[in-house]
Description:
This protein is mainly beta. The protein has helices spanning 125-132, 166-174, 211-215, 232-244; strands at residues 13-16, 21-31, 36-42, 49-51, 54-56, 67-72, 83-85, 88-90, 98-103, 106-108, 113-119, 138-142, 146-149, 157-161, 182-187, 201-205, 225-231, 252-258. It folds into two domains: 14-146, Beta Barrel (Elongation Factor Tu (Ef-tu), domain 3); 150-258, Rossmann fold. β14 (157-161), α2 (166-174) and β15 (182-187) form a beta-alpha-beta unit.
Amino acid sequence: MASRAVDPPDQEDLVRHPIVLRRLRVSRVADVGPRMRRITLAGEELGAFRRDGLDLPAFRTAAHDDHVKVFLAVPGATPVLPIQRGDHLDWPSDPRPLDREYTVRRFDPVAGELDLDILVHGAAPGAAWAAAARPGDVLHLGGPRASHLPPRTASEVHLIADLTGCPAIERWLEAPPIEAPVHVTLLAAPDEPWAAHGAASMTRLRDPMEATDLDRLPRPAADAYVWVAAEGSQVALIRAHLEAVGVPRSRVRASAYWWREGASVEE
Ligand SMILES: Cc1cc2nc3c(=O)[nH]c(=O)nc-3n(C[C@H](O)[C@H](O)[C@H](O)COP(=O)(O)OP(=O)(O)OC[C@H]3O[C@@H](n4cnc5c(N)ncnc54)[C@H](O)[C@@H]3O)c2cc1C
């Protein structure tokens, strides 16, 4: 048998899904934080449905950080949509769709509801759409295209994120995919009231981090599982820290969820 540095059960598993474009409607909007809006979506296309002669499967989500692409419109226009081709989507090139990614905060197949928690940070397309969303509004979305399942065992779990990662952290804490104490590190303004209910510990750092915050980043065990989602330059700092304290790359899933204006896109 070929030897591996890490046995498969200790690594993430990737489960791919057919990618389906769905037309949904906003059924509720609620403010769940000073700047976080929960958009509840519903519609027949959350179930299996038929469009243009294609039988398309019901919505599926399997991991805490599964995400969808939502398709938005430039002001005064209708959204440019990708085209369903079998189990994937083709992207028109001119004009291109205006898409943004959001975590599947909750999916309830019985109630036929899907929640996205969207940070209202300014006048940008995604934030502005969420700020103005009303029951009855139409939203097209595609995905999730895959679910990254965490390793099956870990001595401890570290979830490190800014507010854009909180929907995924909440999902983990509500339904932990593995049994291990969960330590949360939040990068946010000092007065941010978000709390990690059910976590073994929570550390608050400034966003962006300063030198003293870097010293307070966790030092996970080598057999921990570490999940990171934040602004790209912060993710790069966290990755470098994790490497310096000896966490193997196979135990880390780190993603840039957005980029601060002027930040380097190199991680
Ligand atoms: C896999 C994945 C999952 C994500 N899940 C979520 C989620 O559940 N909820 C959520 O709110 N976001 C989530 N995000 C982040 C979200 O996609 C980005 O913040 C996105 O840029 C928002 O689009 P926008 O149109 O509002 O801003 P953009 O048009 O992309 O950006 C406009 C300006 O706003 C700045 N900006 C963008 N995002 C932020 C921010 N969060 N805070 C401050 N300034 C910002 C940019 O630097 C830029 O200057 C996720 C991203 C990824 C990749």
